[in-house]
Each structure stands twice: as structure tokens, then as C-alpha cells.
Amino acid sequence: MFMKLTKTLLATTALTVAAGTAVTAQDMANSMTIVSWGGAYQDSQDKAYVQPYLAANSGVTATWDESSAEAVAKLRAMNEAGNVTWDLVDVVASDAMRLCDEGLALELDHDEVLAAAPDGTSASDDFGDLIVSDCFVPQIVYSTTFGYRTDMVPEGVEPPSTVCDVFDLAKYPGKRSLQKRPIDNMEWALYCDGVAKDEIYDVLGTEEGVDRALAKLDTIKDQVVWWSAGAETPQLLADGEVFMGSTFNGRLFSAIAEQNQPIAMMWDMQSFDLDGWIVPAGLPADRLARVMDFLKFATDTQRLADQAAYISYGPARASSAPLVGKHADLGIDMAPHMPTDPANAGNVHIYDYEWWADNRDDLDAKFQSWLAQ
């Protein structure tokens, strides 16, 4: 049975945050280890709220660990060893659900530990349905989608415009880069093998469906460069090592708008997902108090809007959306670059994080076995 964060605080320290008692700086640790994904996204977090928080809290330091892709496995190992070294971890929604189910993340009362919106709307109402787990504090809506090299489109051929062009090696020859995991790849494969969008997870839930998805991926497997970090596809595209590749839309935005690379976005069947924070279970009282103070600051309305000035991910708070304006350095309007913009969202894939939370371990094993063949 998980304990609510407020009960954990009451049981481990005299700091009764939920009850309204002020927590002093002396009660808090002076350092935090924050886990994220590296690259443009982590940079946006650092600029929007980590550095402002450190500036407002003299003597506090923060260290980044770029291990979010392995968060579940590493937190399992830390818990088993009884040595949790992370203070706050950025994860996708399905991983947050797994960590919550396993007791590796704290359950939170969002309205007690997070800031309300400027108009007084409670945090839970402001985040709304994006709070998909009691352990999860959503930050952004993002998508995994494809980019391609505009100067590598074959002469006389229209540029790729649908996700199924990824599987058309005859029309669009060249290497592809795909994430080294089953998520998204399996769905795209089934969709391009003729499965209707609303039937994808029903089909993928069968052994025959898994085999069908892997068979479709087999048709391009020898032309795939597999990536683990989101920065890899933009670099592969920039170097001309692949013609097209999947990655997070903010990574592609950075390569296109900030680095002026000859890359274009292909929004068809972009896979919507959520990203946010979990607080590891088992933190000492002083570290827990510090991270909760930071979490309240980092997820308020203004801070999430500020993050959207550095990267093209939609803020998870409804109250933040009207505050999204121009890019902090380029001065361009950010709204048209968001995955949720109507011009980009004509045909989207709604990633089922609950299904993957239930099936991830089994599908990971089957996918890795297929990769090794």
C-alpha cells in the first residue's frame, strides 16, 4: 500500500507542509539530483525553472543525470540496494504508472503540494485529465514523429508526407532511424500494414498481432539505425547518415529552427504522449522537503509557459497555454510548432500509456529478441 506524500512527511519529519506549516531552508537539503533526457528538452527545463530556482535559493545546487530512458530499471535497482540517489525524475506517463504500481514513486495529493493557477483554479483541475497517475506530475504534451532530409528527396519525387513512406524503400531509399524500443514502432507498423487506428491495440494484444508488426518492421530492418537517446536522430539527419528518422518533435524543432538544418517535419501519425515528474520513494526528510519545494516552483503556471519559449512542447497546465508566446531567442511564434496545433494534428496517434504500462515488460523482451535475430 502506497502512502500519500503528506503522510510520509508527517511520519518522517516535523515539517507538515500539507498542514500549512512553513518549511525553512534549514530543514531542506542543499543539493538535488534531477534526472531527465538531456539535449534540447533538458536545456529548456534548466532555463525555464532550474536556474531561476537556484538563483532564488542561494547555496542550493542541482546536478543533472541524463538517465530517464532507464528510469524504471535504475529505480528498481536503487530500491533493491536501499540507496536511492535521485531526488526528482522526469519520465513518460506509462513509466510513471509502472513506478507507482511498484511502490517506487510517491503518491501525491496534487492540490496540497502543487501551486494553484493564478485565478485560484486548483492544480488538479488545471492539469485535468493529464494527471494519469497519483504519482505523476505532468509537464508537457509532446509527440514522437519523423523528420527527413529535404536535400535527399529523390529527384522528381514528392517529399514524404505519411508515416507509411517510412516503409517504402523503393520510393524513398536510404537509412531510417527508429527508437530501440517497441513503443510507437509496433503501432506504426500495424497501421502501415492495414490495421485501423482504433484497432491497433486490440491487434497488438495478440501474439499474431505482435508477429504481424515485427514482420512489417522486418521489411526495413536492414536499413534501420536504432537510437536510444533523443539527440541521435537529429545528429544522424544533420550528418546525412539517414534520410528520415523518428524522434521527439522538440528535437526536430531545435534542428530546424535553431540550427537551420535541411530537415523537414512529417507530422502524420505523430504519437502523442505525456511527460512529467515522479518523486522517488524512500527519500530522507530533508531531501524530500527540498524536492517538493522545487517541484511546486517548477510546475506553476508561469514556469511551464516559460519552458514553451525554449522548446515546442505544449505545457500541461491549461492556465499556461495563453501565456505561450514567442521563442526566447529567435522571436518566432511558438504556437504553430506545437504538436497540438491544428495544422499539425490532422492525423495523430493517441499513445495508450495504460496499455503499455500493462504490457511493456513482455513486449520489450520480444522486441529485443527480434532485434538480436
Task: Report the portion of residues in β strands.
Answer: 15-25%
Structural class: alpha/beta
**Over the alpha carbons, how many angstroms does the gyration radius reach?**
21 Å
What's the helical proportion of residues? Answer: 25-40%
Distance between the termini: 41 Å
Which of globular, elongated, flat, extended, rod-shaped describes the shape?
Answer: globular
- Note the total helix count: 14
Mean pLDDT: 91
**Main sheet record:** 10 strands, mixed
Q: How many E-type strands?
A: 10
Your description of this structure?
This protein is an alpha/beta fold. It contains 14 helices and ten strands. The protein has helices spanning 5-12, 39-56, 71-81, 93-101, 110-113, 123-127, 185-192, 200-204, 207-218, 232-238, 249-258, 285-298, 301-307, 353-372, and strands at residues 31-35, 61-65, 88-92, 137-149, 176-179, 224-227, 244-248, 263-278, 314-315, 348-350. Strands 1, 2, 3, 4, 5, 6, 7, 8, 9 and 10 form a ten-stranded mixed beta sheet that branches. β1, α2 and β2 (61-65) form a beta-alpha-beta unit. α2 (39-56) packs antiparallel against α13 (301-307), α4 crosses α14 and α7 packs across α9. It starts with a helix and ends with a helix. Mean pLDDT is 91; it is low at 1-22.
Helix and strand topology:
Layout lengths: L4 H8 L18 E5 L3 H18 L4 E5 L5 H11 L6 E5 H9 L8 H4 L9 H5 L9 E13 L26 E4 L5 H8 L7 H5 L2 H12 L5 E4 L4 H7 L5 E5 H10 L4 E16 L6 H14 L2 H7 L6 E2 L32 E3 L2 H20 L1
Parallel strand pairs: 1-2, 1-3, 5-6, 5-7, 8-10
Antiparallel strand pairs: 3-8, 4-7, 4-8, 4-9
Helix pairs in contact: 2-13, 4-14, 7-9
